[in-house]
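Hi R.,

Here's the chain you asked about this morning:
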Amino acid sequence: MINLKINNIDVQVENGQTVLDACNAIHVKVPTLCHLDLGKLGFVNRDANCRVCMVEDVKKGNLIPACSTYAKEGMEIRTDTMRVVQSRRVNIELLLSNHPKDCLICEKNGECELQQLAMDANITTLRFEGERIPFDLDTSSLSIIRDPNKCILCKRCETMCTEVQTVGTLTDVGRGFGTVIGTAFQKPIFETNCTFCGQCISVCPTGALTEKCCITKVYDAIRDKNKTTVVQVAPAVRVALGEAFGMEPGTITTGKMVAALKHIGFDYIFDTNFAADLTTMEEAKEFVERLESNNLPILTSCCPSWVKFIEHNFGDMFHIPSTCKSPHEMFGTVAKTYFAEKIGKDPEDIVVVSIMPCVAKKYESKRPELTLEGDISNVDRVITTRELAEIIKEFSINFEELEEMDFDDPMGESSGAGAIYGASGGVSTSAIRTAYYMITGEDLEEVEFKDLEGLSGLKVAEVDINGRKIRAAVASGLGNARKLLEDIRHKREHFDIIEIMACPGGCVAGGGQPFIHGDVSIIQKRTDAIQNIDRSKENRLAHHNKSIQKIYDEYIGEVGGKKAHELLHTHLVFREKI
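And here is the predicted structure, written out as tokens:
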């Protein structure tokens, strides 16, 4: 243990902790900007680029960055001297001098950490008007907008992209005053190996990285009397949406969310959890067939970011992933075929809107291989949890006071297995539950696998099915996925079923969710809520969902059959390794 003083208060911290950790231990607030510690999710950025967290080392008589200076025995630290206050203020003012002044129309207005720092420092005028280098806006991506003019070189995004996700798309480009975070050779981001996971958006403190907004196009569809609007909502949305309205993280807002969507004017409100059950049926069947032929492992393929990741990096392993579409794409398919026939509508006159915790779904919805005949997209528009919150606020809906409503039929019914798709470990758990039934004809007595739950980036469990030990591995975060796939490629590990989610912690921490601003406990609360939805369901098994049974009986036919493959399965596309 290390003993030191902070503002004349005795503090004891573990060896290896920083001065900032010591300050936090006694609730002394030190402002930070570039620093971000999401240790449980494998992410720590302490490069001390912004110099906002300066404190005074009394014995040495100099200013030091609290986030990157490790505590030492006998240190005396002051956070409250005029020298410290002036230093922080000047550093914030210098950042503002090279920053656009369009806060009112910025996507991050109200969520910008630089904006909040300026308010906390009581900066109401600018003493410095620095020269600025104009950069072009990068709108090439279907998911992410890059505005280098708002980049403050905190390098949070670079750390997330390179060290956590191991994608390496974002890096510092240029030298000196002209340095900016960009892509290699300043290529448009759509032409890079970016997976569009949106984790860079999640950690960006300013408006330098934002999602591509689809709200106006959704409004256009609702206003068009010739179109039938069908909206679906992913499982992770309902456990995070309430945060935008001051509700406790992890509050389950399903009924209020449905009521809000009806008020906004969508014609039909359905549940992506229904499609998750559909995905479970197809993946479980595929797993059972491959188990019988010993063609293992099988990788679940619900996350568009990890799909693009494997397309760039593991072209020799295309035989491993499941061919199933993701749940929201399966939903789009059946909405424009099965449901369109039920309501007597032409697929071209149905607009499917997906509400997702993920910005990569915007990109996924435009993949050419995910279309019906005539190049009709399965999903037309994708908005994020954040965008839904903006719409609800724009419609002046008192969200907390809404009376709860149910999803519409027939694609509103779901099992607990559909709900847990929103958290890391849920997809594989759901598939194993149903695969067990397909093999044995009986339901699992214990449907929860504790070893596959939680925020750990790599989890392993064993399940006994008819005397055969099934090894399951779950990775969240693309860095963990890379390690897992490398181990399989080089035969260092063997698993029977593997689940990968690009976002650390799974969809609950998706790039389209409300910002957590460094508080990992929020992710845990969302995860706990997902598990609670599963536990509260009378039916926790996809194969007992009566609406799923009905769609197979009436329309699809055999699970894993010819029509199922035509409608619900897809293929990977080989992409250049960059």
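One quick note: Residues 272-292 form the longest helix (21 residues).

Cheers,
M.
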